[in-house]
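JOB MANIFEST
job_type = single_chain_structure
chain_count = 1
residues = 188
[input]
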Amino acid sequence: MDRREEIYEKSLELFIENGYVQTPLSRIAGALNLTKAGLYHYFKSKEELLFFIHEHNLKKDFIPTLDAAEKISDPEGRITHFLKNYMQRSLTKNAAAKMLIQEANKLKPEHHEKIKKVWRRAFDLIYNAISELEEAGKVERVNKTFATFAAIGMCSWTFYWFDYDRRESGRELSDNYIKIFFKGLLKD
């Protein structure tokens, strides 16, 4: 493992455990047997480290899910793939997503914009798939923006209540979300 990867792992662990604001760089450096100046050799600031963690996490889990979903021609399959994989990757690996969502507003505007661009891809993927389903007469007419935010929101809110000691229930949860999103709760 290279040093930046090691810094990523330890910083993420400490940010999850204590929060971004409550974790000083000196604590991260100490946990890595580095001086604070040694940590600055890799990252110019705590905010740059947070951005690195965001970007690294997106590249590792979120972007591959988006890339794969975007290749699916069937709009229902595209949404299903995205929701299922987003949930399973996030809920079965670590609690990073919750911390990253909470701390995104701590990023500099230019870093925040880069993160938002990735999330915009997810929004567009779902919105466009709903549009295709609507055009094909397969779904009721709805406000597609609201429906898209509902899909992303139900997944993203899960990080606030999910029991990470029961990671195996992530698959069942994602299957339930997909069922609720496409069919609702009420029987025909």
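[summary]
The CA atoms of residues 40 and 46 lie 9 Å apart.
Residues 109-135 form the longest helix (27 residues).
exit_status = 0
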